[in-house]
Every structure is written in structure tokens, then in C-alpha cells.
Specification:
Number of strands: 3
Strand order of the largest sheet: 1-3-2
Distance between the termini: 29 Å
Strand content: 5-15%
CATH architecture of the largest domain: Orthogonal Bundle
Structural class: mainly alpha
CATH topology of the largest domain: Arc Repressor Mutant, subunit A
Number of helices: 6
Order of helices and strands: HHEHHEEHH
CATH class of the largest domain: Mainly Alpha
């Protein structure tokens, strides 16, 4: 393994650790844990879903999802609605306006800085970043599936 690979691995780890710390700080400011506020992101991206679907995309157990939904419902960030097609099923419906109002003020400057950072790269540099992120996501998804099967 070359020194450059070791240096990049350490930089990647520092990025991951710094990301966790930042999300914990954002979560605290929003009155949530760092992971809870990230789970709101799944709800913003995917929209209404069942608890089972939320468990699937987050990797949480259905019991943990119930607690998560209870916490969010208590803060009025979502509501549970019966599925019109199957009244036995409950759909989790995020209040996207309320979630955005809670989180956007805590993230807007970071998002703007990230946009400026990406804009500072050449087309070739952006393609390299895109390739790295895509392949890293694939590797993490593969490792997650592998661990979940053990």
C-alpha cells in the first residue's frame, strides 16, 4: 500500500468522523439526535411510506422505527395515516414544510459552501468526484448487505 493510499484513507476517515460530529451538532440544535435528524432526510427524499419501508431504507429494526416515528410525531414532524387501500397498514406522512423550516436554517450556509466548493472544480475534477462517490456508495451498500446476511 502506498503512502498516498494511506493518506487518502486517513483523510476519508477524518471526513466521515467530522461529518458525524457536524450532524450531531445540527441534530442537537434542532432538538434531535444526530441520527434522528438524518432519518428525517430519508422522509424528505422518499415522502410518505410505511414503517416497514422506513426500516428497510434506514437499516433500523421495526421496533426502532416505531420509537423514531413516535419521537417525530411528538414533535409534529410527521403523522400516521391509515392506508386508504388497506386500513391495517399505516402510512408515515412527513410534514415536509415543517421539517425544512427546522433544518434549513441550520444547513443553508453549509449547502451554499458545498455548492461553491463543487463549482471550484474543473469538469474532470467533478467527474472524478462523481466516480469516487458512486463507487464508494456501491462498496458501502455491498458491505451493509454482507453484514446483514451474517
Amino acid at each position: 500500500m502506498t503512502d498516498k493510499v494511506i493518506q487518502l484513507r486517513k483523510l476519508s476517515q477524518a471526513y466521515a468522523y467530522t461529518s458525524i460530529r457536524m450532524h450531531e451538532a445540527v441534530g442537537r440544535k434542532a432538538g434531535l439526535s444526530g441520527t434522528d435528524h438524518k432519518y428525517l432526510g430519508f422522509l424528505l427524499q422518499k415522502g410518505p411510506m410505511t414503517a416497514g419501508e422506513l426500516a428497510e431504507i434506514t437499516g433500523l429494526t421495526t421496533g426502532a422505527v416505531t420509537g423514531l416515528v413516535d419521537r417525530f410525531e411528538k414533535k409534529k414532524l410527521l403523522k400516521r395515516q391509515p392506508d386508504k387501500a388497506d386500513r391495517r397498514r399505516i402510512i408515515i406522512v412527513p410534514d415536509t414544510d415543517k421539517i425544512r423550516a427546522l433544518l434549513q436554517p441550520l444547513y443553508q450556509d453549509f449547502q451554499d459552501d458545498t455548492d461553491r466548493l463543487f463549482a471550484s472544480f474543473s469538469a474532470v475534477g467533478l467527474k472524478t468526484l462523481e466516480t469516487y462517490f458512486s463507487k464508494a456508495i456501491d462498496m458501502m451498500q455491498h458491505k451493509t448487505e454482507q453484514l446483514n446476511q451474517q
